[in-house]
Amino acid sequence: MKETANGDLVVPLLESPESTTVTIPHPSLRRTKSTRTVMLKISGIKCATCATYIESMLGKLEGIESVSVSPIEGQAVIIYRPEFINAKRIKEAIENNNYQVDDFPDQDIAVCRLRIKGMACTSCSESIEQALLMADGVKKAVVGLALEEAKIHFDPNITDSNRLIEAIEDAGFGADLISSGDDMNKVHLKIEGLGSPEEASLIQSSLEAVEGVNHVEMDVVDSKVTITYDPDYTGPRSLIQCIQEVGHGRNFYRVSLYAPPRRRESEQQHETLVYRNQFLLSCLFSVPVVLFSMVLPMLHPLGNWLDYKVHNMLTIGMLLRLVLCTPVQFIVGWRFYLGSYHALKRGSTNMDVLVALGTNAAYFYSVYIVLKSVTSDSFEGQDFFETSAMLISFILLGKYLEVVAKGKTSDALAKLTDLAPDTAFLLNLDSDGNVVSEMEISTQLIQRNDILKIIPGAKVPVDGFVIRGQSYVNESMITGESRPIAKRPGDKVIGGTMNANGTLQVKATHVGSETALSQIVQLVEAAQLARAPVQKLADRISRFFVPAVVVAAFITWLGWFIPGEFGVYPRHWIPKAMDGFELALQFGISVLVVACPCALGLATPTAVMVATGKGASQGVLIKGGNALEKAHKVKIVVFDKTGTLTVGKPVVVSTTLFSSKSIQELCDVAAAAEADSEHPLAKAVVEHAKKLRQQYGINSNHLPEVKDFEVHPGAGVSGNVEGKRILVGNMRLMVACQVPMSSEVENYLTETEQLARTCVLVAIDGVIGGALAVTDPLKPEAESVVSFLRSMNISSILVTGDNWATANAIAKEVGIGTVFAETDPVGKAEKVKELQKKGLVVAMVGDGINDSPALVAADVGMAIGAGTDVAIEAADVVLIKSNLEDVITAIDLSRKTLSRIRLNYVWALGYNILGVPVAAGVLFPFTGIRLPPWLAGACMAASSLSVVCSSLLLQSYKKPLSHARDDVVAVADGYSNSV
């Protein structure tokens, strides 16, 4: 590394964002110990000797830096190292010596995020929350089922992340630490040349002593270190310098940045692979079971060999079904046993319990039939091994599809983070503000107050303000404003935005977690962790239904067994080759089997699968059942403007002349002047000129050459075209260049602004020759969509980052009454939350990055398909064709689907309500009709079949708005034919 006389770099600091080598000695940093202080109120101190004893006793504990005990006030002030000891252990040490700690206040509140494994339904997330809230020191816990994460607020003096992970594992789930504390400002470094654990320990101690360092995690094996820091006191380059100082005079350390692997992606891929393999393994055994039990016996004589007797009444078919079903029940289905065990251990029931009960009832009764057939030469019974095998296979298929869907919707946060550029140009200025040196560094190495150079076409790396230069910056990702904003010295810039044409020097003011982009990430993250307001109906029913069925089956068995033992009913009621116990057992098992949760479990997922598939074919991508579940309750739709209600691309809509020049001449000189500008309005003018040339039959798109081209930030452009001085811009440019403004021009400007259009004036040699009105046109379907929503009793609201005049004009044109303009991304999300606080279910429709916080904050977020990837990933519904009519389609499809799900539950529970009494033998004493287990299994299969067929009826769904349009066309055709 070469240096200047004052020690500054003159070559790039980074070779690449992933491999950063720094070998610069720098002056020592100010260092302090990383400690905490706790104040305790101690009773029982009678004299100075007691105080001295407590000080001595605590001073011997590892991690205690200092102890000061006041015998008069009975207070102790202890400074300690949190990595060795915490306040709770200090309190226990005092109490173990017969002193009482009366006041043990919550000194701090820390936050950690954990990755949760093994959640299957909302009852799982509730159980984890309860387990966490019961842990000592936990103040608040929020578990997100879709995100598979938990965010926990806790007192670090009482507990830590390791104990929280243990609490989750005790509840039967897995957990890994994502982040501990407010550690968004984190840097990952790899150290080359590290020779021994002692050197690693020395580096860790040195880093921990740096002021502003919160946590240091050292990986000695891989020679890596992760440092969490406070940007107010230090930064990544200072930390690298600290490591270099440790190696100075001993070893030469090469320090480089490294990107840690994204654990979540690898875990999702692994989970998807596990479910797929288990489903295929289950099918390998289940398909032959179905063939041997339901298909081949109906194909005579192909299936006759299955009826051959092996021993007594045991047939080849029975034996094959037993052998094939057993691996499915106990190997593939072992996960359901584990899930049931942990659920019952927590005192709750979930879908695992339902699946385990249903499959066990089917399997073990079938085993009983097999054993009875082996031991009897006259017994005839029907097994239903296929019920157990098929149920497990279908459940695993549903789980696999669910995991695949989750994997496609979990990248929103990663995409947001990736918006920031990988590298930036760091400048070193002298006392006069002149550039002494320039180096390209990774954005991860930027520290507060750094001076950065932003070249044309580059992204702004962090938040800051301009100290030199002028340019336009496209901030549409944050503000929603489609036009680039002029930037001058003193103006603020936002990280992730795009610099258009000029070079800027920017001073960094907000880095790491403080940037606007990071704030949006945190908003999206918080919204994704929030609990869905609607609970799963199947889970609610299962809490009461499963215990009730088990109790009913047990009572049924007792109700037949005890009277049979005492001869209450006639002996001839008992079928041949049976006794009273077996008859009672069959009645009890029939109750369990007929009430098996197959149909209950299929009621929702089959409808959701059909609806989402149908929606995708109609241009509406619905991300899972939660969106369908909530969309049918929507009462207010919040629309963004740019790119949502409007096309998102400015176009010239009218041209007015104020001189003898022709429209063609005016547009040609305007386009020539604007040809070198990157501004969207300039592009609209150039495109309009090209269309005019084609319209007038001019084949050439060559424009006159412009000389002395100059950009006037926030006003327009100027230049010489064919010897004439041309000005193209707004009124501000004309006034600055002393171009006279007639009353005709001023009236035209006023009329244009009232129509929410931008007026581009064109002056030739100091005289205004004409004007072009530029606007972002409305989508043709916008007005009809708002009107149709009103007919569905759904209100519409416009929330935009654009100015009030434009917003009001657009709202008036489409028929929206309520408008909120000049709103930033956080403000949009707040507006959504304000509406939700009124008890309203809100849908948000947007297309930009700036809409993503509101999209995830809303009950249903709908993203335009032509919008940004981040908006699409953050939303619950994606309108693939970018057609606003699909907003209505999504809501209407949700209503139809929820209605179908309710009907499915009627089918599922209807069979239970009718079948359970019959299975329990209510009709047997009077009619001799009973429901043997095999017939109960058939009824259960029939309920499942009816539920699936009911869901398949959603395939006939038609879009409501297009359907209404077709009806109008049909009526019009009929009228014309009659005329």
Key terms:
alpha+beta; seven-stranded mixed β-sheet; six-stranded antiparallel β-sheet; 46% helix; disordered C terminus; P_typ_ATPase; ATP-binding
Structure, described:
This protein has 979 residues and is of the alpha+beta class. Helices cover 46% and strands 20% of the residues. It contains 32 helices and 36 strands. A seven-stranded mixed sheet has the order 24-36-35-34-25-32-33, with helices on both faces. Strand 15 and strand 16 (435-442) form a beta hairpin. Helix 10 (351-375) packs antiparallel against helix 11 (385-408) and helix 16 runs antiparallel to helix 29 (885-919). The longest helix has 35 residues, at 885-919. The radius of gyration is 37 Å and the shape is globular. The protein starts with 35 loop residues before the first strand and ends with a helix. Residues 1-33, 408-412, 530-535 and 967-979 have low confidence and may be disordered. It is found in: Membrane.
